[in-house]
Amino acid sequence: MTDERQEEAGEVVLRLTDVVKTFPGVRALDGVQLEVRAGEVHCLLGQNGAGKSTLIKVLAGVHRPDEGQIEWLGQDFAPANPQAAMKAGIATIYQELDLVEDLSVGENTFLGHEPKVFGFVRRGYMARHTREILGKLGHAEIPTRRLVRALPAAGKQVVSMARALSHDARLIIMDEPSAVLAHDEVGNLFRIIRGLTAQGIAVIYISHRLEEIREIGDRVTVLKDGRTTAANLPARTTPTRDLVSRMTGRTIEYVFPEPAPSVSGAEELLRVEGLTRTNEFADISLSVHSGEIVGIAGLVGSGRSELLETIFGARRAEAGSVRMAGKALRPGSVSSAVSAGLGMAPEERKSQALLLGEPIYRNVTLSTFSEYARVGFTNVGREVAEANRIAERLDLRPRDVRRAVRTLSGGNQQKVVVGRWLLGDTKLLLLDEPTRGVDVGARAELYKVIRDLAAQGVGVLLVSSEVPEVLGLADRVLVMREGRVVREAPAGELDEETVLDLVMAGSLQVEEVTI
Amino acid sequence: MTAQTTAAPVKEPEKPAAEERRWWRVDSTDGLWRNLALVGVLAILIIAGIVTKPDLYSDGTWVRNNIFTILELASVIGVVTVGMTFVIIGGGIDLSVGAIIALAGVWSTTLATQDYGPGGMIFCALAVGIGVGVVNGILISYGRLVAFIATLAMLVAARGLAAQISNKQTQVSTSDFINGLAANDFLGVPVLVYILAAVVAAGWVLLNRTTFGRRTVAVGGNPEAARLAGINVKRHTLLLYALSGLCCGIAAIMLTSQANSAQAAMANLYELDAIAAAIIGGTLLSGGRGTIIGSLLGVLVFSTITNLFAINNLSTEVQNMVKGGIIVVAVLIQQIQFKSLSQFFAKNSKITTS
Predict the structure, then answer these.
(1) The CATH number of the domain covering residues in A1-89+169-253
(2) Which residues are registered as beta bridge partners of A289?
């Protein structure tokens, strides 16, 4: 099927030749070739820092390339600004959706080019037109006057796409659209994408998930260090090994380090009993032993992130208790959790964990700088030394700990967050989606770090929506659905299908489960 | 200072930058350039003074005295601005500083308080300042009021209380010690200037060298990250407003000694001067970034303008118009300097390569 589709695919709409873009000190794009045809889903693969984001921004008119040629619909293309790119028919859906939360669905769809007469917005026309577009996307049920704030993540994404279509886009760039979606919503996204390509619209699809690329993609272009290392590979038939080796120069995908031999009779670190928060999760009991990795598998919305935050004291439990080494933690107090030896790497790195403008070392020591201080005076020399030690241990790149965290790639930012908790005497680490937005190579490193920690006796409670990750990394697995633990078993006794079954059954049999 | 004296116990694989560091170094060079720009503005203002009044500037003693005049003019607002800078870096705003000064000034000059002598008056002013600051802090961090609203309410209420206590009368200070602070010199330098220098120095150390300062930047830069790192954001926010209140207490004593009296209308609109000075000094209104030196320079720019207009016998109306312009221009210059300049160079290098 792949091959036929390629044969019948439309003419080339976009062609990039030797595109170069430099920023002070960095050659972000260093000779990119890309060819996109009408009606195809063209996947871009590459590690963090490979230049994907810069490439998107060049196409979207945010940056202008220094060298090279961009040909769009047979003509030279040099958009002066994002509006010009939009007008030319290239729409971009960024990872962080750029919607105005307090405007309605219709207003967001036509943001910046509202239909108007004498400066008055033609509301009726706008609503009609929005409904039409939403209908095309298969989501006519979204009310056009609803505030975007009230929509779930998947709904917001549909609105972003509606906006792209309102411009008569002929090329839609999607930057990790599935990152914010739960499993069943991804299927819906794919249905929409197929609908778009059937109308001859080209899609550039960026994702870290190879299985998605296999499912939706037609052709793949691989970037590494700002260069195209492979162009126009067939998405379905190219072996994973090939794709990964072109991204990394290595031939690995998910490499999980060997689990450490389980220590029998290890002391119990964390004990959670009957933890409950209305509408989030109910009656959760679990325990984590020293040196043990416990994984929680569950969809977005299954209550797993909320559970982690509640254990950490960032949310206050309504019922139940959290005990650390036998001592009860004060509910709703992060300080109490931290001083008991808990550490957490939250789901949203940028908004929940990092001071982006501050140097790396200050981010690494954010929860320990008081311990190095003497009578309230900070000890910068010691902090830098400790941060260097962490940077060495986690292979942080670049190694200069005085750089602002803003300048690091996603994987390295995550290392900073994890590294923060390696400094203190953290006994139990709560990791919420530790590899989200992290490329394959850096993932393997993070897995190794997590295993090493466990081998040193640290307990780990890990949440991930990627089932293979949970199964490959954890010693024991809890499956969560609709705010409850539906299965607990050693990782060896579960396989991917079983877990996926358990995770997704919820929507069909809610009544049975909750009563 | 203490930062560099302790040897790190762990092996350091590579730390090239650490050896070159001196105690006065701050990590970001951004602030340094910003401050140099402000020094440039100051230089321009002084040159304007020399050009307009060459006769005065040819007299050495007059120049020396005029410098002290400018510094004295800057002293009260400078002390307030140090506290304000902390609050703004910590992600808040304190609109009540002028009102706190009035309340602290009036309370410390009531007949009952003056009975306790200058020590009692100083204690009273500082206690009132801290007390009001703590109330602000509690309302904001534990009552979850928006800082703007809580301190706006305090602005109205504190001045009301000051008028009530003083019965709308001007209360004369009979303490020679207090009055002498503004009148006397020590080693040829006015005492008020020493107080300003001490507060600025303490503020610099507090912001750049202590855990308190580090927490301030963290809490203002990303409150959620600070909270999840185990920092007690609420308590720290409270402390920031208490610190601002303390600075107001000190300023109240200074202002009382300048006027030899206190009244409910004193320190009017100081909140605006302090915020403007901090902003000119490069403090980010959304929190997480700012420097004490920058704020001090901001205050000095304002007092130098005031002085420039005074020696030229120009009206305060014109002066206010110029001040408004200066705020806009100073912030614009900083933006040009740090955003467009790098883009400008980037563009130029592109031209040369293509």
Answers:
(1) 3.40.50.300
(2) A268
The sheet with strand A171-175 has its strands ordered as: A90-93, A171-175, A202-206, A41-45, A219-224, A227-234
Residue of A nearest to B227 (CA): A334
| Best to test chain A binding among B12, B24, B228 (most A CBs inside 10 Å) | B228
* Range(s) of chain A covered by CATH 3.40.50.300: 1-89+169-253, 268-514
Question: Do B17 and A402 lie within an 8 Å CB cutoff?
Answer: yes
Taking the Cβ of residue B217 and every Cβ of chain A, the question of whether any pair is shorter than 8 Å is answered with yes
Query: Which residues in chain A touch residue B346, judged by CB atoms under 8 angstroms apart?
Result: 23-24
**DSSP-derived 3-state class of residue B246:** helix
What letter would DSSP give residue B128? Answer: H
- Residue B283 sits in a domain whose CATH number is 1.10.3470
* The total number of structural domains that make up chain B: 1
Please state, in angstroms and rounded to a whole number, the distance separating the CA atoms of residues B55 and B66: 13
Per residue in A374-426, pLDDT tens?
888 988 889 999 999 988 888 887 888 888 888 887 778 888 998 898 888 88
Q: Is B41 a member of any domain? A: yes
Angle separating helix axes B176-183 and B233-259, nearest 10 degrees: 90
CA angle in degrees (0–180, nearest 5) for B3-B217-B221: 145
Closest-CA residue of chain B to A336? B230
Helix (H) or strand (E) holding A448: helix A440-455
What secondary structure letter does DSSP report for B109? T
Number of A:B CB contacts under 8 A? 122
Segment B183-193, tens digit of pLDDT:
888 888 899 99
CATH top class, domain A268-514: alpha beta
Whether residue B223 is preceded by a cis peptide bond, meaning omega within 30 degrees of 0, is: no
HSE on the CB side for A306, CA within 13 Å? Answer: 23
A156 lies within 8 A of chain B by CB: no
DSSP state of A407: G
Is A334 in CB contact (< 8 Å) with chain B?
A: yes
Per the CB < 8 Å rule, is A388 touching B209? no
Which residues of chain A are within 8 Å of residue B227 when distances are taken between CB atoms? 314, 334
B8 inside 8 A of chain A by CB? yes
Is the CB of B211 less than 8 angstroms away from the CB of A367? no
pLDDT in tens, A49-99: 678 888 998 999 888 899 999 999 988 988 888 888 888 999 988 877 778
Give the angle subtended at the CA of B334 by the CAs of B330 and B337, to the nearest 5°: 135
Within a domain: B74 = yes
Position B351 in a domain: no
Distance from CA of A479 to the nearest CA of B (A): 25
- A392 sits in the region (left: phi over 0; alpha: psi -120 to 50; else beta) called alpha
Q: Do B6 and A379 touch (CB under 8 A)?
A: yes
Nearest neighbour of B1 by CB, restricted to A23, A377, A392 = A377
- Phi, psi angle pair for A477, to nearest 5°: -125, 135
Residues of chain B contacting A346 with CB distance shorter than 8 Å: 228
- The domain in which residue B145 lies consists of 33-48+59-333
User: Is B271 part of a structural domain of the chain?
Assistant: yes
CA-based nearest residue in chain B for residue A402:
B27
Strand A342-345 relative to strand A428-432, pairing? parallel
Token pair recorded at residue A249 = 């120069």
